[in-house]
Amino acid sequence: MIVFMENLEKLKAAVRGKKIILFGPPGCGKGNRSRDLRALGLVHVASGIALRAKVRNDPDSELSKKAFEFMKRGDLVPDEIVVNIVMEHLNREECQKNGFVLDGFPRTKAQAEVLFSQVDIDLVLHLDVPRKFLAYGVVEGHRRACVDCATGYSDFDTPEVEGVCDKCGGSLVRRADDNTETIENRLKLYDEQTKSFLQDFEAKGIVEVLPITVSDDEEIDDTYLKKLKGEVYWGQTDKGGKARMLNFEGMRKRLYKLLAEKFT
Ligand code: AMP
């Protein structure tokens, strides 16, 4: 097994060309884990980002209008629309050559069937995050997306310059579907339509669980405390009233260790 950081280059070589799915409910940190996988050279393909880009770049097309109707309610966009957009990305040379991390897809059994009939998936990473840790970021609206290229950011994945996209310089705006009603709907759809086919992946022997545990927590400062409201947030309040948030560095190390164990 390789040792973290000292052998980062070895890990990059080991994961090159791998096809990985990130699986987990909305707000579980797929975006952040994608960033960690991107740092290893994998191409990030996110169905939500691809859909938002389509709507943004081609707002008058029937397809965009239809997709946006579903997205703003937090409903699932019809399979035929999403499948075409995602498969078109996966067939690009950069994905074939470097491998990819798939974020937000598949979300229905039909999507999973098309994907598996066309692509040999190496690994499904299940981000097994307890419900109480989900969605603070979503509900509080700390996520933002670029108006031009739809790249997503959050308070944990900030751009170099606040409000400006690192990739293309576009302005960052809050996502239209980040509000309490749509997140409830998205969680419900995850339970009803997405979670159930994880067992199909398990039967193929390609699932690894990346759980989040209390040991990943660390204390954070007061500015965050002020943002924490209600029951649903990205973090926890301990007995002394101190806010905690997930330790992203710790998560990254555990993710890389898991990949090293699997692929080297
Ligand atoms: P996300 O950025 O993954 O949270 O996705 C934002 C929205 O895009 C979702 O709430 C859906 O409306 C739509 N969407 C993204 N991926 C899919 C998918 N695989 N199937 C259907 N709809 C999707």
What does this structure look like?
With 264 residues, the chain is of the alpha/beta class. The chain has one domain (5-42, 99-263): P-loop containing nucleotide triphosphate hydrolases (Rossmann fold), CATH 3.40.50.300. Helix content is 44%, strand content 16%. It contains twelve helices and eleven strands. The chain has helices spanning 8-15, 30-38, 47-57, 62-73, 79-90, 93-98, 109-118, 136-140, 180-194, 198-203, 222-227, 248-263, and strands at residues 19-23, 43-46, 100-103, 123-128, 144-146, 152-153, 172-174, 207-211, 217-219, 236-237, 243-246. It has a five-stranded parallel β-sheet with strand order 2-3-1-4-8, sandwiched between helices. Strands 6-5-7 form a three-stranded antiparallel β-sheet, with no helix packed on it. A hairpin with a 5-residue loop joins strand 5 (144-146) and strand 6 (152-153). The protein is globular. The structure holds adenosine monophosphate. Residues 26, 47-48, 51, 70-71, 74-77, 82, 104-107, 111, 177, 186 line the site of adenosine monophosphate.
In short:
The protein has twelve helices and eleven strands. It is of the alpha/beta class and 264 residues long.
